[in-house]
Design brief:
heterotrimer; B: alpha+beta; FAD/NAD(P)-binding domain; six-stranded mixed β-sheet; about 25% strand; C: alpha+beta; four-stranded antiparallel β-sheet
Chain lengths: ~425, ~950, ~90
């Protein structure tokens, strides 16, 4: 059922009685050509592109909870492609290009809003680092602008330019960056995949990947065994748990990252703003809430909740750039599990087990990567070859040394 | 001035002797000390307080507590203006200013209320289905309009004039909530001698006992509260924390709480915080948070004048404010009759009691900006319209289980009490009274006394059991109804977010059957009240329309904070300049006297340059400092470098494993440059290390690396090689250290050091280290090391002598024309010398990348050695450090520019590397830079372009050796 | 969280920094498989959902490296001890 303002008006006169379910609740089949483990943004996007771009139909997405219930539904909704490392740039830029046509492509308004992402810098050396990044992006044709203090003041005058501990000197602006409505992204991909015949099996937990003679042949689930010709692991924070059932050992640790939203207030922050003397990012949702986050809680965790030290730290950072929000109130904070890789960059690759593919290591960056990740993972699974834009995101890069370490913090996941 | 037309003649816990004036939307009103904004407005006959989120419908007061979804106002003005304050919780003070929000031009006439007319379009999630064409319209047209319409109050302006504190508190038993259950718990625990903290979000203790006429033992409920309070106040082991909300439960018995220290007055007294945030660490905690009454869902159930029954009793009994004169009761429990009695006692007329258990329902409310009538569907099906100005809803209670869920537990539906009650609990927490679904007063007291003693006993404080007194009887017979669909009008489930039962139906119809999907699709429960009055009804309706029981539907996850918390409170004093500590160098005061310009370098504030006269800019000052140092002598405070003192018989072995080079062969009295890698083979830090004795080394680190190197060494010692006999400690702050550099540095030094010490090149050559005494007897450490490339020394003295030493050096150097130099000059000189520093030690470079492959000893293992030999790190064309000079001498280099070959177009594959550090060299009279370049060493003498899109420059640069000045190092050995 | 430092007693987690999996043995650099062993040592982690042995540094306390047994699903702490057997001995 196509969505449009006309269909909306038509339904309004009929009491919205005829809207069809956005997805089915199918029974699992005995066998699929492709089983994707994980019904989050990346899994659903992979299924969508497998069906749409590769014409494959016999696909299941297995989700232990409700679809879109993981990181895609609990992040701070930032979309950008302002990366520095040549291994990351083409991938994230491709993802952003997909974002730019996504809503028309899957006929769902994900409220992709290119309102700009502004990274503040606070010292000369940081300015030069940002210039290095901006120039690296421009090498690939990704537009961005280095602003001085005045440029930042014009854009976001409500920041603290007077009395900050780490005075704002300028910023790197990617105008094409912005935010999107996170849930809608999952729902749009799910709807698009479902309508193309993909079975999205919610409340179905994958418990074991069955490997026979070096080949993945199926998945044990809470609803029985499902045979599969190819299996993709797209389980984000739970990657290790399922991958180890196939004997994989991965350069991944799971950490909790908290996210925060304030009460709704009238429009204040026009773009996404990040703090350079810490690790803090904030934007304002269409509903009016300030949506923000900062660093990981710092310890390995599979509990989707965090603790007060990070809460206070995050809010101190918020106040460090915009003390005017002191009297705005925190409405809710929650946690999600991040699949932190050892260099802070993702992995989209084969695994060494035939028919088993992996997509993980998204760290903080998974949401913006959703379409790109789905596109490239679908390409890998369908064609058994790495997509050119994901060719650096290899699993063996830790062996070869071709690491993609944006932050330069080394094999220490909680520092990325 | 309006009069308090609805103020009852007597009664209530207000202080009629203290009359207060306040304004709402600029209009002046009167109230009393003890009122809330809501109770005072009710007393003044005001019932319209705000407009709803989506449809901008008129909204009044629903509740009398922190669950309030509707009555939100902006409080105070100017820099103290706060949006979204619940009028039901805000205490009245003299001169209070409140303003309605989310309306334009006025509360009475709100243009956006036309949204109601197109409401058939604005169903749940309508925005997902439209606004997609054309794509560019979203940012330009649709979204700005949506954003302007959404939001509630206006953001505050400027800096908050108030301040906030953070504190830790520790106790044996934390009691959350000071209603009857909480008071009983605190009494029982307090009597045992255990350290008890009792928190309540209200300004007075008592909970429901403040709102209902009850009997406990021989006393009235209020008398019992008073007695309990004075007993608790008399116990030195009990801390009463009023106006304190425990907003979250965290791991291992940590509870987040906010005390609203001074929100009940216009502004905090001098030196007092507005709010204080606590981390309360409790061995045991007891949740006595009570319960929240459920509204009824029927047509137009959001009209001002429709209130919770319990809230009406609160306004009558606690505040002596009568919310209406012709009342209808809509109840599914016996509690409706209690409300009716209270209303009648207060002089209102109860025109109808509609008891759903008799098959009677209210179908619809009628009215414009206030309730005027209700349509009652009688048991026999006939409809009767009854005029009224107040409707009391009683539909049972939802236990305030929120805190029990913050660690991921979910409550379960209990059919006996028709409510979700806590199931699995966080460790150390028990629940008493209504919060546990035990709704009678007798239950509350029984639970409190029993579990209070139990909690204290578990923390080691035994006491004779306290027995609960007997209360008057109450009947809570109840059969909830979730909605009445037979009438017209919108039926609101989530008042603040304008979510109706039809929105939930639509969500279900479209496949959003999971409770989480429904919540996210409809936004039910996501408003500032986090659905305190909405969630359970929403679940029930979703269950009904999807053919599931409410337990099968389950709840969403309750998240902290229980009620919204001001961001300022969680930041405490860590704002503005106090966001993070500022570390000052030993010469800071002296440098300030010299009018030095300072810059932030990590936690430190360091002198950037020393302008000679006002207006000298950084470039001229830097150039002057460099030239003076290279020609005469300069001095720089280098105390910020990390200093680690290592001792023990295995220190040499330890350093050999830490550093790429060999330190066991270092002679006593000598210094060596050291490079450390991380275990992954990338450079970690660098610095010089001196051997002061057989088993005694002094290491220096970079300023930024001081902390992490220390932790790394401790890891290596304690975790990897505990068998090594070493001990080390950071002495960064114990030693003030200055670099004296330049041809005259020895002469300056000789004037400071006792003459007995021979500082000649022969006696104290380059890379020497030793202990000396300064004239006057101050012990010092002297190192002949040079970052600048000049004849140079670093001299360290105990930190307390730092200020005296810098003054002595300047005095001694005066005759030689000494200059202090700052970070700019320091950086320029090191770039001239090709020394790597911050820009190059960025965690992405290997020793080989930095031209330091020769520093990695091939005779031994060290941290990082194996991984630095991975294939990618040995690739022939991996970018390597070289120097750069612009072909056109007047051209400026910019850090972060990338290199391209002369005729190539920009692309990732054409990218050859980038400039890491640049400086204007007054020595070479040209900009110079260090950077990494593919095949750099083979290309020395060639030309590439330094392309900087960010600054709009594209210049030709010559690739050169990274050492620009005195390649042979003759000056520093002189 | 509250971390039981064997030296200082139980303290707020804010005083500690976290490294990761405990018990990893630095490979013998002269072993023939050293390159592979170092790869695993530096990069491969068990990352269990459940009890985990992990290294914490009491950075704003006694600066002991400690091994904490902690459940990553519930955050329950089952115990903590000095990482260094030498320090443990000294403490006893």
């Amino acid at each position: 059922m196509k969505y449009s303002v006309l269909s909306l008006i038509h339904q309004a006169f009929r009491g919205h009685r005829d809207w069809k379910p956005v997805w089915r609740y199918p029974e699992p089949k005995e066998e699929y050509d492709i089983v994707l483990i994980g019904g989050g943004g990346h899994g659903l996007a992979t299924a969508y592109y497998l069906a749409k771009e590769h014409g494959l139909k016999n696909i299941a997405v297995i989700e232990k909870g409700y679809l879109g219930g993981g990181s895609v539904g609990r992040n701070t909704t930032i979309v950008r492609s302002n990366y520095q490392e040549p291994g990351n740039i083409p991938f994230y830029e491709w993802s952003l290009k997909l974002w730019e046509g996504l809503e028309q492509d899957f006929n769902y308004n994900a409220m992709m809003s290119q309102r700009g992402v502004l990274n503040l810098y606070h010292s000369d050396s940081q300015r030069d680092e940002y210039a290095r990044r901006g120039n690296a992006m421009m090498m690939h044709g990704v537009d961005c602008t280095l602003l001085d203090k005045k440029g930042v003041q014009d854009l976001v005058p409500f920041l603290d330019f007077e009395n900050a501990r780490f005075p704002i000197q300028g910023g790197l602006l990617q105008e094409r960056g912005g935010t999107a409505r996170h849930d809608a992204v999952a729902w749009g991909f799910a709807r698009g995949a479902d309508s193309r015949g993909v079975d999205i099996l919610q409340n179905t937990e994958a418990t074991q990947i069955r490997v026979e003679n070096g080949r993945a042949v199926g998945v044990e689930t809470s609803r029985g065994y499902i045979k599969a010709k190819k299996i993709g692991i797209v389980a984000a924070g739970n990657t290790t748990r399922i991958a180890q059932t196939a004997g994989l050992q991965l350069p991944i640790e799971s950490y909790v990252l908290q996210a925060f939203v304030s009460e709704a207030i009238k429009p204040l922050i026009p773009s996404v703003v990040t703090f350079g003397a810490g690790h803090f990012y904030i934007s304002q949702s269409d509903k009016g809430g300030l949506v923000f986050g900062a660093s990981l809680d710092g310890y390995s965790s599979y509990a989707a909740r965090g603790n007060l030290p990070s809460v206070e730290d995050t809010i101190e950072e918020a106040m460090a750039i915009m003390p005017s929000i002191s009297r705005v109130k925190l409405l809710r904070h929650w946690g999600g599990i991040m699949d932190m890789s050892m260099d802070g960059s993702p992995i989209i690759d084969k695994t060494g087990v035939d028919g088993l593919y992996i997509n993980c290591g998204w760290c903080y960056g998974g949401f913006k990567a959703t379409p790109g990740s789905g596109w490239c993972f679908a390409h890998l699974i369908a064609k058994d070859e790495t997509h050119p834009n994901a060719k650096a995101l290899r699993l063996d890069r830790f062996k070869t040394g071709h690491v993609i370490d944006e932050a330069g913090t080394g094999a220490q996941p909680n520092l990325h | 001035m309006n009069h308090q037309i609805n103020r009852l003649k007597d009664g209530g816990l207000i202080d009629r002797a203290q009359k207060l004036t306040f304004t709402f939307d600029g209009k002046a009103f009167e109230g009393y000390q003890g009122d809330t904004i809501a109770s005072a407005l009710i007393a003044n006959g005001v019932s319209l307080l705000g407009r709803s989120f989506k449809y901008h419908r008129p909204r009044g007061i629903l509740s009398a507590g922190s669950e309030e979804p509707n009555a939100l106002v902006e409080l105070r003005s100017g820099h103290r203006r706060e949006p979204n304050i619940r009028a039901t919780m805000a205490e009245l003070y003299q001169g209070l200013e409140a303003t309605s929000q989310n309306r334009w031009p006025s509360l009475d006439f709100d243009i956006m209320s036309i949204n109601s007319l197109v409401s058939p379009l604005l169903t749940a999630g309508f925005y997902y289905k439209t606004f997609m064409w054309p794509a560019s319209f979203w940012e330009k047209i649709y979204e700005p309009a949506i954003r302007r319409a959404a939001g509630l109050g206006r953001p505050p302006v400027g800096n908050d004039p108030d301040h906030y504190e953070k504190a830790f508190a520790h106790c044996d038993v934390l009691v959350i909530g000071a209603g009857p259950a909480g008071l009983a718990t605190a009494l029982a625990a307090g009597r045992s001698g255990a350290r008890v903290i009792l928190c309540d979000e209200n300004n007075i203790l008592g909970g429901r006992l403040l709102s209902d006429e009850r009997t406990i033992g021989k006393d009235s409920g209020l008398e019992w509260v008073k007695t309990a309070e004075s007993e608790l106040a008399s116990l030195s082991n009990v801390t009463l924390m009023r106006r304190t909300t425990v907003f979250g439960i965290y791991d291992h018995g940590v509870y987040g709480a906010i005390e609203q220290v001074n929100d009940h007055i216009a502004s905090p007294p001098a030196y007092q915080p507005r709010q204080r945030s606590y981390r309360i660490v409790a061995k045991r905690a007891v949740l006595a948070a009570g319960a929240i009454e459920r509204p009824m869902i029927f047509g137009n159930n959001d009209l001002p004048g429709i209130m919770l029954g319990s809230a009406i009793r609160t306004y009558i009994n606690r505040y002596a404010s009568l919310p209406g004169r012709r009342a209808v009761i809509f109840t599914s429990s016996d509690e409706g009759y209690t409300t009716a009695k209270a209303l009648e006692q207060a002089g209102a007329v109860v025109v109808a009691i509609v008891d759903s258990r008799k098959g009677e329902m209210i179908q619809r409310a009628q009215g414009g900006k206030h309730l005027q009538a209700v349509d009652i569907q009688m048991g026999n099906g006939t409809i009767r319209s009854v005029e009224c100005d107040l409707l009391a809803m009683s539909n049972g209670w939802n236990p305030a289980v929120h805190l029990t869920c913050h660690l991921g537990n979910k409550p379960v539906w209990h059919d006996g009490v028709h409510a979700f009650i806590p199931d699995k609990l966080p460790k150390g927490l028990t629940v008493v009274g209504s919060a546990n679904g035990r709704f009678t007063l007798q239950n509350a007291l029984d639970d409190g006394f029993r579990l209070g003693s139990e909690a204290a006993a578990e923390t080691g404080f035994d006491t004779a059991a306290s027995h609960a007194p007997t209360t008057d009887a109450e009947s809570l017979a109840h059969q909830p109804i979730w909605r009445v669909t037979s009438g017209k009008g919108k039926r609101f489930v989530d008042f603040q977010h304008d979510v109706t039962d039809l929105d939930i139906e639509l969500a279900n119809r479209e496949g959003f059957k999971s409770v989480e999907h429904m919540k996210r699709y409809t936004t039910l429960g996501m408003a500032t009240d986090q659905g305190k009055t909405a969630n359970i009804a929403g679940l029930a309706i979703l269950g009904e329309v999807s053919g599931r029981t409410i337990n099968e539907v389950g709840t969403t996850i309750f998240r902290p904070p229980y009620t919204p918390v001001a961001l300022g409170a969680l930041a405490g004093h860590h704002v503005h300049k106090a966001f993070r500590p500022t570390r000052l160098t030993p010469s800071h005061q002296w440098a300030e006297e010299q009018n030095a310009v300072f810059m932030e370098t990590g936690p430190w504030l360091r002198a950037q340059y020393f302008p000679k006269e006002a207006g000298e800019d950084w470039l001229s000052a830097m150039a002057r400092e460099v030239v003076t140092t290279r020609e005469k002598v300069g001095v720089c405070d280098v105390s910020t470098l990390g200093k680690i003192d290592l001792q023990g018989k295995d220190v040499a072995t330890f350093l050999d494993r830490i550093y790429t080079g060999t330190f066991s062969t270092l002679a006593i009295g000598r210094v060596r440059y050291g490079l450390m890698m991380r275990e992954d083979g990338f450079v970690f830090d660098d610095g010089t290390t001196a051997r002061l004795g057989e088993n005694h080394y002094l290491m220096t680190t970079t300023t930024a690396g001081a902390g992490k190197v220390m932790a790394h060494l401790e890891f290596c010692h304690q975790v990897l090689w505990p068998e090594l006999d070493i001990a080390f400690t950071s002495v960064t702050e114990q030693w003030a250290q200055f670099s004296i550099a330049g041809p005259c540095s020895r002469k300056v030094l000789q004037k400071i050091v006792e003459p007995a010490y021979d500082l000649s090149n022969e006696a104290f050559p380059y890379m020497s280290a030793g202990e000396v005494k300064l004239r006057g007897g101050v012990p010092a450490r002297l190192f002949r090391i040079s970052f600048s490339g000049e004849l140079a020394y670093e001299i360290g003295v105990p930190n307390g002598y730092g200020d005296a030493l810098i003054r002595a050096i300047i005095a001694a150097g005066e005759e030689f024309g000494i200059t202090p130099y700052g970070l700019e000059a320091l950086s320029t000189m090191r770039i001239e010398k090709g020394h790597v520093a911050g820009g190059e030690l960025n965690g992405q470079t290997t020793p080989r990348d930095l031209g330091l492959a020769g520093m990695v000893s091939q005779k031994k293992d060290c941290i990082g050695k194996h991984m630095s030999e991975r294939p990618a790190m040995l690739e022939a064309d991996r970018p390597i450090i070289v120097g750069f000079k612009p072909r056109n001498k007047s051209a400026k280099l910019t850090g972060g520019a990338h290199f391209l070959d002369l005729a190539t177009k920009p692309s990732l594959s054409a990218d050859l590397g980038h400039l890491m550090s640049v400086a204007y060299s007054p020595t070479l009279k040209s900009w110079i830079g260090l950077g990494i370049l593919k095949n750099g060493r083979q290309r020395i003498g060639e030309t590439v372009r330094a392309v900087d899109f960010m600054r709009g420059t594209d210049i030709e640069v010559e690739i050169c050796d990274p050492v620009f000045f005195d390649r042979m190092g003759e000056r520093l050995r002189g | 969280m509250r971390i039981p430092c064997p030296f200082c007693g139980t303290r707020d987690s804010q005083e500690f920094t976290y490294l990761g999996q405990a018990g990893l043995k630095r490979p013998d650099p002269s072993a023939p498989n050293a390159q592979a062993a170092f790869h695993d040592y530096v990069h491969i982690r068990k990352n269990p959902a459940g009890p985990n042995s992990e290294l914490w540094l009491h950075a704003y306390g006694c600066r002991s490296w400690i091994v904490v047994e902690r459940n990553t699903l519930t955050h329950d702490i089952l115990g903590a001890d000095y990482a260094s057997p030498v320090m443990k001995e000294a403490a006893q």
